[in-house]
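Question (not urgent): is this output format expected?
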Amino acid sequence: MAILTDEENLAVQAKLNFVLGAKTYDTYFQGFHCGELSDGIITAYAKSEYMAGVISAEFSGDIAKAIESIVGQRVTGVLVLPHRTSRR
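Got this back:
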């Protein structure tokens, strides 16, 4: 299991902002961050249960591509959960 660093998280967020556009990114990804990458599955967190569902349904492919390009590991699945209270 690998936990994405703060720098990797910022790089993923910047890439998503670039790919999706500022309006879409600002609408859905406020408070978004990636957590663990384990066996090809990335666990990410959104600011609410609703946003987690929307992000999971609409943007999982974009998230996987962004993470793959940053960390250099294959991502086969994206699990987006509501934001947990403590980060790490």
